[in-house]
Amino acid sequence: MAGKKNIEFDQSIEEKSFSLRDLLDGNVLTRKAVMKQSRFILLLVAIAFASIANRNHAEKTVIRLNRLQADVKEMRAKSISISADLVRLSRQSEVVRLVNRYDLKLEENLEPPKKLFYKAE
Question: Would the pTM of this model clear 0.85, i.e. be above it?
């Protein structure tokens, strides 16, 4: 009997076997090998959560960037349109037409502007 080893109580055989039933029951988490690596497993879980959060943040940022780029294109088009309208309205002929239309009783100055000089004594 001294030379025979009792296989029934040998823990090394139990540690090497792995079944789907042990995984579903949760018995895998109580094994020594898993308990020794618990810190590493927690680190991997933390890295997985950080990676998921980072991806989610990046996707939200890309969506926001696309929305802002569309807004910039729209604002640029609106700016060009308003600028063209202002150029058209600031022409002398357009100003005269608007003055006459609203009957503001203003007259167009037909003589060119004069430059004033100041002599310092």
Answer: no
